[in-house]
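Lab notebook page, bench 4
Experiment: in silico fold of construct C2
Operator: M.H.
Input chain length: 105 residues
Purpose: comparison with the prior construct
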Amino acid sequence: MSDPSQPLLPVAVARSQPPLPAASEKRTAADMAATAREFEGVFMGQMAKIMLESVEQSPEFSGGQGEAMFRGIMAEKIGSLMAERGGIGLAPAVLEQMIRLQGGE
């Protein structure tokens, strides 16, 4: 049993991040492009969510509580659709960095 007069020692905390893939596990260009598009979609969804929250809803034309519950899902879908249709050019920049980090040109 521990002595209550002694200070507690810090406990090692497990890493919450998964380990990075080994250098031999390089991802394909198609995988990286899909990940970059997905990242852009998430980013655009967050922007859409903030924009939707900033618009005042009139009681006559809004959907009430039901609409409020699903507004976040709608923002996510708007973001993913925008990214699928070309987005704002973020995916190519992210893809370029991903390739550079893997040692490509």
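Observations: The helical segments are 29-54, 64-84, 90-101. The chain has a mean pLDDT of 82.
Next step: discuss at group meeting.
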